[in-house]
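Now for today's protein.

===
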Amino acid sequence: MSFTRRARAAWLRWPAIAALCLALAACGETAAGAGSDPSTTKTKTQTAGTGPAAGQPARGGSGTAAAGGAGTSAGSPPGTNGSAGSRSRAGASASGGSREEVADPKEAESYPAPASVQHASAATPKKASEAAVAAGALSDAEVRQALHETQAAQKKAASESEKHKISLKPVPGGQSIGGDGTIPIPTNVPESVQKVVAGANEIADFPYVFGGGHASFIDNAYDCSGSVSYALAAGGLIGQPETSGELESWGAAGPGRYITVYANAGHTYMYVDGIMFNTAGRSGVYASRWQVSGVTNNGFVARHWPGL
């Protein structure tokens, strides 16, 4: 066969070879499709695209339910947690998350209120702090205009404060001060401290109920940390109720000049201008949290607000 004929024969074979290759490729795709499960592929795609990422909690968990239900009774006015008997012992934070409180080892010394006890709800801490203005404290403008008069007033107030502390007498049954359970708002301290005293005065004789004052600052009973949190909030020193364990890291370490909070995992109290504010050691269910004498403070962390 001549060279020309051989070349022509080879050229004629190329279409057949190309058709064979296309047929083999089609067979391969068909085999691959038959070996997969379309429903499985779809399920995996949906799971990867729409399900929660690994390690993330699902929405609508138990924390939300606890925050919505803990400490609330039917028929209670807005902003309250119902009667002492209906409140849950599991605290709920103001931000909405469930937060379990450690049992208060001083609860038995705090005259915990029975279920039958009813008390009106407290005002907001901000509203309570307004009482500091009524105490005769000078405004910032007045201080700038008459600094020497302010210094004279401070010296006089300091003397009166010392006389008041000496004259404090405990109510039988504990160390609570008598009278209406409040102390005079001092004029020789910073305004924020005056507001803390005003806030503490607002709830000084409220009943003690474990968990009280944690779902909201506005409540009709307060436990140890709920009481301290309310007073600090009146002075603008805390944004939401904290447990005693959380108050172990509040502010800065060590005692303060005007306010010192003592806290451990189960209990907390504070000194404001030298007078103790404590649920434990009171003289009765409605006795004041302001007390005549202090305690040893052993086993507690001391915290203060910077500058105070």
Summary: The first helix runs from residue 3 to 34.
